[in-house]
Write a structure and sequence with these properties.
The chain has nine helices and two strands. The chain has helices spanning 2-13, 50-56, 91-100, 131-134, 140-146, 148-151, 179-185, 220-225, 236-247; strands spanning 28-30, 35-37. Strands 1-2 form a two-stranded antiparallel sheet.
């Protein structure tokens, strides 16, 4: 009985342990009780493996690493050289974390793809947008216009595919029976956004070459008429590899 009373007394007197985000509150929001991570804090991927990031940025927090809605403490090494929080932000430490392990450190919203201004009066609450909404055909185009920072749509001018697999088969852009679909769901891949649609001539001059490597695809003319040659969804190397002659890419 004495032992039981002692255990209860110790439990009662012991301080409550809870995670408190301290030091750098970037990518957090206040939920009325404490600061928690926004969905955009962890929406990106690390540029090196998650396992390597766990070694570089170890955590002892019982909640683990930052996750949408939790208040796990950001690993100190993500932003400071101090051993305890709260601590001052060391810019070089934060820069290194952003470059290699933004998801592990809860910094996705500070990366280029997630760091831009949303519209003043969005149709939904940008800070609470989930990964599921970012991938939803019902929401992607709205989010790209109103809340680009929530899903990594910064710098895309509001032009995204409503479905995520349009680029798996570019022939869909020219399939006669699929035009209504691509006009609605594959605007970026098929060059149907107002900012990426080019004239029907399809020929785009790039560089000062007098000759070009041969097109590797027989669909280049059709793709060019739909903006492929100037659509920055594809890298220069990708456009050149497929349609160097049609797009006049040196």
């Amino acid at each position: 009985m004495i032992a039981l009373v002692s255990v209860l007394l110790v439990s009662f007197l012991a301080p409550e342990v809870s995670a408190v985000i301290g030091g750098d509150l970037n990518c957090t929001m206040y939920n009325g009780t404490f600061f928690v991570w926004t969905p955009a804090a962890v929406a990106c991927t690390n540029t090196i493996s998650d396992a390597s990031c766990a070694i570089l940025y170890p955590t002892t927090d019982t909640l683990g690493y930052p996750a949408a809605g939790n208040n796990a403490v950001r690993p100190n090494a993500c932003y400071t050289t101090a051993a305890a929080t709260p601590a001052a932000v060391v810019p070089d430490m934060k820069t290194a974390a952003l470059a290699s392990c933004p998801k592990t450190c809860g910094y996705c919203c500070n990366t280029d793809a997630y760091n831009c201004k949303n519209v003043d009066y969005p149709r939904l609450t940008c800070a609470s947008i989930t990964t599921a909404q970012c991938n939803s055909p019902a929401w992607r185009t709205i989010i790209a216009t109103d809340c680009p920072s929530a899903c990594g749509f910064c710098g895309q001018g509001g032009c995204v595919d409503a479905v995520t697999n349009c680029g798996n088969d570019l022939s869909i852009c020219q399939n006669i029976g699929m035009q209504d679909f691509v006009n609605t769901y594959c605007q970026k891949t098929c060059g149907r956004c107002p900012s990426t649609t080019t004239s029907s001539s399809g020929s785009v001059t790039g560089g000062t070459c007098t000759s070009y490597i041969a097109d590797s695809s027989t669909s280049c003319s059709a793709w060019a008429s739909n903006g492929f040659c100037t659509n920055t969804f594809y890298t220069y190397a990708q456009r050149r590899a497929r349609c160097a002659t049609t797009c006049r890419l040196c």
